[in-house]
Amino acid sequence: MIKEKNILDAAxxxxxxxxxxxxxxxxxxxxxxxxxxxxxxxxxxxxxxVIPGQLPLALDVEVQEQEExxxxxxxxxxxxxxxxxxxxxxxxxxxxxxxxxxxxxxxxDTTGLVRIGEEVTEQLELEPGQLFVKKFIRPKYALPNGExxxxxxxxxxxxxKGIPGPALLAWIFISKYVDHLPLYRQxxxxxxxxxxxxxxxxxxxxxxxxxxxxxxxxxxxxxILEVDYLQADESPIKVLDRNKEAKxxxxxxxxxxxxxxxxxxxxYRKGRGREGPTTMxxxxxxxxxxxxWKTYERFDSKTISLIHCMAHARRYFDQARKNKPxxxxxxxxxxxxxxxxxxxxxxxxxxxxxxxxLRQKESLPVLQSFHLWLKENITExxxxxxxxxxxxxxxxxxxxxxxxxxxxxxxIDNNLxxxxxxxxxLGRKNYLFAGxxxxxxxxxxxxxxxxxxxxxxxxxxxxxxxIFEILPDFLANRLEELLP
Length: 484
Known about the structure:
The chain is α/β, with parallel strands linked by helices. It is about 45% helix and about 10% strand. Strand 3 and strand 4 (about 250-260) form a beta hairpin. Helix 4 (about 200-225) crosses helix 12 (about 435-455), helix 6 runs antiparallel to helix 7 (about 325-345) and helix 7 (about 325-345) packs antiparallel against helix 8. The protein is extended and about 115 Å long.
């Protein structure tokens, strides 16, 4: 009995030790990820181990060279530089910039001398922004026989009876939502230009312009929901809420991108729950590409087909490199093969049909063999380890991860919509929070228009200046013409 008890005690101790080893491994991985986030490089680039005799892959990501310490004896011949410089000179300044000519005559009496040429030296200069006043003068005329008075009609202003012109308003919007300058910093800039604008006045200008832009935003929303393929993601925003004890509310921007027509839409919601996308996508039919967050699962239905993001699956294997380096390196190499196909299609400007054929020929075999490898290795690692989570994440979502290979218009990952969110992340670091829920909604509207301008390669300042000039008198049934 004592022997059996000792055996049972030993087995129990081994089980406890195994559990603690798994927990230690999990904590070490979390610590490694935390240290990487705080101090390390954010890049997820991967350099595969090169096997002698194996040809290198055409990779979709930049390969980081492995650093190896080697002792070498280096000999070289030093070439004495010639007196004549081999410098090719400066790159010419762009022709479209205006030139101000300054003629410098010699400090000599040139009367009767023949001019034989000239030396031209160009210097790039800047004249800080200047405010000026548009003065609308409207002469009044008396009609004969006392029939009344006539006067020219003022053009419509972006803000009725307001003093800011379209260009100034465009500058305020671009400074805040593109250059990420809070309004109080803009106010300081204007002070240096000789005019003091109260904070409440400038905030009022922004709010009134957003009211003007609201129908255009609604048109963009309708336009983006007409398609049959969207990418979606979400990002938090702190909002000042005086009704809450902590004064700060954590809201969310739900972001939708149309990769085909290159449109983006920000939609502000007070929470991260499913109510936001449920309302937005109630009439949407087609493919919805998302990350693996569980809230999106409820949208997988007869009308909406979910696609998952390959970049998110890859990220888990990158995080497991220290946990199981051999398994992680194999997986990352397979991902590189898939992205090499995407890179080729992009660089050669393949049509959707050509990209589909290329994927069927080159990506599908990789996906099939990778799937088998996932199933073979899922039972070989502890499920709560970093590699266990990576394998489980990919395997449970595999059908939705490989959906892209069956349709040339679909993207391999959700990176396009994540790229659209980056300006928001930069803005948060500068203005920290939105002043109210209404301000957050207005910001969503501006980020949508600015983001679409960026995707389309349109100058946002010129776009907003033009919009503020013509929108007050524009016909509602033609608003789609004003989308970026």
